[in-house]
Design brief:
50% of the residues lie in helices and 4% in strands. The protein is mainly α.
Length: 882
């Protein structure tokens, strides 16, 4: 069993774990048999009236209240419970949370006045009877709404193109066979010839090598690469293209580029987002896993199985098992509403998000649309949604978040089986760890005592001021315990840093989900066996009390008989190489999505993809060495009239560089880019914390400050004042840099894929140019043209610094103006400047000089060259690929 580390929310976190492990047995086993008349009478006369009178105002869907995450207006509401776990287990009254609250032991419910002894005894009797409760909805009471999916609908849908098996047909014959270089060309050219459209001329060799370099690595080609390709292309274009493609596929930069495409759809981020934006300091491990997977050409079917069920796959050694655990971060890193009061709502929302991402990304269909009713357009009944929901309800998700007053939904992390600690953890001695653990135990006990004292005073009717003072003390001690727990759980007993990961695991006991009428928590209906979507294959029901079904789900998704998985990935690759997919709605292969422009080509590539061991590199190689990929962006009026959207691929559609390619290219041109992969990110340095006002504050660093200052009260402000008295203004600035740092740190020079991706706080260099929204599955990024983009290129510190650094290097390497101006073009465009470009830059250079003379100021040569560099960065030729 994988070890886990509890997050600093030590008390609620433990109770939340209790909730999710008791939940399966409570829901599945309670009240399976019909109620007797005597049981119903007891509930209706003894229990329901008290609940309505005393409890519903604060704990019911009818009033919209679920204080403490608890609702008691349904049978399952009691069994699932709230923040502190299930209210009771049927048949076991003693020790239950409900009886403790009614008896004013640990809790006091109702808080206004304790119920009479007779009523409390009635509740005890009711629980020991098995808690008979008629408040459950049957199948007959279900309301599907206007659209209902029938068995006939599903059978008919299986004949549609998306749900039928890909069939590879021979490439069609074409009239201009000399134009073709691969079967891909035959499929495209046949459609063009049918419409009497001629393909565009070939792209200029310079444009082609630049296109290949950006498409495969996200970086411009070096001048040496361009020179070699121009010479080789002149004698043998096919061979030159093949050699360049092979070289780029072998580059480590390939994985960094194509991993970012996957991270877009995997909604990769390093924080929860939403109301309480807590950090995910271990998310970087998943990022690096994806990069390595693409660089190593991990078979795509294996890639998917590891992300859905890596923890359940066989592993030869600890290193392999660790890799599999990291892969399941795919299911763990979705956005989280940590302040959700209702525990059931939080769990079901998390399951919904996991269903949505896994089906849309891998299968290209949205099963999550059937949460509240049968899918309005596609043959996905509500039962299919809850069949998958049972799989993920039987899975525990470990994402790890910091303790805070707003965080009602903490989680733990899993310990990696091999030694790979975070880069910011420092070695400690065993004595230091023992001291910290003893201190943690003492503070935790003090926090618990403070909480008990506060509750006692509340029951005694203490004034508001007294209660608030006790609550402040409780919160301060809780925060202190939280930081201490985060530290001590990050080390073993000898002071060695431990390694942790965001991941998922099967629960000890599997459960089936209950269908919720209209998706409402208080409307549970039939229990649905765990299984998969019927329209893609016969319902495979998953049996067994200890088997979530995730492994079977992963195997079903990657089975070659599954009609969607290979098609969807082939379509994604095509989209990234041509700007649009063969199916333009990359996450929607359903009835509301667009049909494929070349269905036979899509099937041909899907079959080839599977037959070549699901190799993404082989797929890319086949596409990039085709003739259709080489086409220029030349406009043809006749072709445009017949196919204005270029669906038939009569030319290459011009495209703008994405945000990462633009930023990386500026670093590349300035010579400042750092190619070595960093370990972790800024978020890793901050650790488990909360994002506030675009800044990260390190809780561990704050703790160290307090210890250094000798503070016994954990008062941060007093510690700052003390440090200010000791070190003055300069020391305070250093301290602030140590404890708090901006997310958008423009001084970072490594590739953009390694920048921190914090929900609601994307670095401006990426956000300005349509970076993927990390709370969503984004298969197709937007492409806007806004004034803020021009302002960024004119005024942003990052752009100005790269221009200055580039000018500095150019001045050092070149000694006359023409050479310097030409060097600007070679660094940014990877080619020499044309005569007209040199003339225009010279005029600009002299204009700058004239302005300086008129203002009686002297501008250094470096400033003028820097201005030219910045102007070229802002040009359309830099931002667009032909």
């Amino acid at each position: 069993m994988t070890d886990s580390i509890k997050t600093p929310f030590f008390f609620v976190g433990a109770l939340f774990s209790l909730l999710v492990f008791v939940l399966p047995a409570a829901i599945c086993n309670a009240q399976d048999e019909a109620l007797t008349d005597e049981q119903v009478t007891f509930f209706e006369t003894k229990i329901r009236p008290v609940l309505v009178r005393e409890c519903y105002s604060c704990h019911s869907a009818q009033t919209g209240q679920s204080r403490g995450g608890l609702q008691v207006d349904t049978r399952d509401g009691f069994l699932v419970g709230g923040d502190s776990g299930p209210a009771f287990e049927p048949g076991e009254a003693e020790g239950s949370i409900l009886m403790s609250a009614l008896e004013y032991d640990e809790w006091a419910m109702p808080p206004s006045k304790q119920l009479s002894a007779n009523v409390i005894e009635d509740f005890r009797t009711w629980i020991e009877m098995g808690a008979p409760d008629p408040r459950i909805i049957t199948r007959a009471e279900r309301d599907y709404g206007a659209a209902t999916v029938t068995a006939d609908d599903i059978r008919e849908a299986k004949t549609q193109w998306a749900y039928s098996q890909p069939v590879q047909v021979p490439p069609p014959a074409v009239q201009n066979s000399a134009w073709t270089r691969s079967p891909i060309d035959n499929f495209v050219l046949a459609e063009l010839e049918q419409e009497a459209i001629s393909p565009a001329t070939d792209a200029e060799p310079y444009d082609l090598v630049r296109r290949l370099s950006y498409d495969l690595t996200g970086l411009p080609p070096s001048q040496d690469q361009v020179d070699w390709f121009l010479n080789a292309y002149e004698s043998d274009p096919d061979r030159a293209v093949a050699i360049v493609v092979d070289g780029l596929l072998k580059s480590e930069r390939f994985g960094e580029r194509w991993a970012r495409h996957w991270l877009d759809v995997a909604r990769y981020a390093e924080s929860t987002g939403r109301e309480v934006n807590a950090t995910f300091p271990h998310a970087w491990r998943y990022r690096d896993y994806v990069i390595d997977a693409f660089n190593n050409d991990k078979p795509y079917d294996e890639f998917i199985r590891e992300q859905i069920a890596g923890d359940l796959l066989p592993a030869e050694d600890d290193e392999t098992w660790a890799e599999h655990l990291v892969a399941t971060g795919f299911l763990a890193m979705g956005p989280k509403s940590l302040n959700e009061q209702n525990a059931r709502q939080f769990i079901l929302d998390q399951v919904d998000e996991q269903i949505d991402v896994s089906t849309r990304v891998i299968l290209g269909i949205s099963v999550a649309c059937a949460r509240c009713h049968d899918h309005k357009f596609d043959p996905v009944p509500q039962e299919d949604y809850y069949a998958m929901a049972g799989i993920f309800l039987s899975t525990s998700t470990h994402y790890g978040t910091i303790d805070s007053q707003q965080n009602r939904r903490p989680s733990n992390l899993l310990r990696l089986p091999d030694e790979d600690p975070d880069p910011y953890l420092k070695q400690m001695t065993s004595a230091e760890i023992r001291e910290l653990r003893q201190e943690f135990d003492e503070v935790r006990e003090s926090a618990a005592n403070a909480a008990r004292e506060r509750r006692l005073e509340q029951r005694r009717g203490a004034d508001t001021r007294t209660v608030n003072q006790l609550r402040q003390q409780e919160n301060r001690l809780g925060a202190q315990a939280a930081i201490l727990e985060q530290i001590v759980n990050s080390y073993d007993q000898d002071g060695n840093p431990l390694s942790f990961v965001m991941a998922v695991q099967d629960r000890d006991q599997a459960i089936n989900a209950r269908l919720l009428v209209r998706g409402e928590l208080d409307q549970p209906s039939d229990e649905i066996d765990r299984g998969v979507v019927q329209v893609i294959g016969d319902r495979q029901r998953i049996r067994g009390d200890r088997n979530s079904g995730r492994k079977e789900l992963a195997e079903w998704m990657t089975d070659e008989e599954n009609p969607l998985t290979a098609r969807v990935m082939v379509n994604r690759v095509w989209k990234h190489l041509f700007g649009n997919g063969i199916v333009r709605t990359t996450e929607n292969f359903g009835s509301t999505g667009e049909p494929p422009t070349h269905p036979e080509l899509l099937d041909y590539l899907a079959v080839e993809f599977m037959e070549h061991d699901w190799s993404v590199k082989e797929l890319i190689r086949a596409i990039c060495t085709s003739h259709v990929y080489r086409q220029s962006t030349a406009f043809n009026e006749n072709a445009f009239e017949r196919d204005p959207e270029n669906r038939l691929l009569w030319r290459r559609t011009p495209s703008r560089l994405d945000a990462e390619a633009m930023r990386d290219s500026m670093l590349f041109a300035s010579g400042q880019i750092e190619m070595e992969r960093p370990r972790g990110s800024i978020v890793t340095r901050a650790g488990q914390t909360i994002v506030r006002d675009g800044n990260l504050s390190s809780g561990i660093e704050v703790f160290q400050l307090l210890r250094e200052s000798g503070s016994e009260t954990m008062d941060v402000r007093e510690a700052f004042r003390q440090r200010a008295r000791q070190q003055g203004a300069a020391g305070m600035r250093q301290l602030r840099d140590r404890l708090q740092f901006e997310i958008d740190d423009s001084s970072l020079n490594y590739r953009s894929v390694y920048l921190p991706v914090i929900r609601d706080n994307i670095p401006i260099a990426l956000e300005a140019f349509d970076f993927a929204e990390p709370t969503m599955v984004v298969g197709v990024r937007g492409s806007t043209n806004s004034p803020s983009q021009a302002l960024f290129m004119m005024n942003d510190e990052f752009v100005i610094r790269q221009s200055n650094e580039m000018a500095k290097a150019i001045l050092f390497e070149n000694h006359n103006l023409n050479d310097r101006l030409n060097a600007v073009m070679r660094r940014i465009y990877s080619r020499d400047a044309t005569e007209s470009e040199l003339e225009a830059m010279t005029r600009f250079y002299n204009t700058v000089d004239s302005q300086v003379t008129n203002s009686r100021q002297r501008t250094p040569e470096r400033e003028k060259i820097s201005a030219i560099c910045q102007a070229v960065f802002a040009s359309a030729d830099f931002r667009f690929l032909n």
